[in-house]
């Protein structure tokens, strides 16, 4: 049997769970109090999406778009040096910013109140998870609050929030291009976390399942372009 068949995914990682979560602690401490402002920006997105005005929806899309730049900084400064595939992602994340801003400006984004019920349930669930629950997950799983993952700084909640936003805002032909990068990151990070035996890996795959179920519901509904 070839020797490479005896390797597992964990053998290809150059770090363990302690090192991985330490990255967030170092980054949060280095940029403090930006994590607090980032959390407030996420809450602002939630509040904007409760409005029935198209301008508020567009602003929520733009704030979420800019959050990808913050997540890219974390990748470039801390994550890419210990995980070489992340070096490619840190250049891709700004592309998501551009896509979301272009979509917000040139597409007639609907207020979430006009979304179908499956999209509303999926969208709000993913956004609440990303903005309000992700920062306290570390404490729930026994880690220090300094290692918290916040929307706009950590890539995982940023990707999950974007998928939730896509569900709430009528994206039409923009759905596929807007979804490729968040879905790809959730898959990559989910596999990495599962390899590290971190429960957040299951959470990312569950978030993808919620998003995919909503997409399938939209696909099966006659006459919808969501």
> How many discrete domains?
1
- What count of helical segments does DSSP give? 8
**What order do the helices and strands follow?**
HHHHHHHH
The rough form would be described as globular
Number of E-type strands: 0
Percent in helix: 55-70%
| Largest β sheet strand count, sense and barrel closure | none
Strand content: under 5%
Describe the protein:
With about 230 residues, the chain is mostly helical. It has one domain (about 15-220). The chain has eight helices and no strands. It starts with 16 loop residues before the first helix and ends in a 6-residue tail after the last helix.
Question: Keywords for this structure?
Answer:
disordered N terminus, mainly alpha, 226 residues, 70% helix, globular, 8 helices
Short description:
The chain has 226 residues and is mainly α. Helices cover 70% and strands 0% of the residues.
SSE topology:
Layout: H1 17-31, H2 34-49, H3 54-79, H4 86-106, H5 117-140, H6 155-168, H7 175-195, H8 200-220
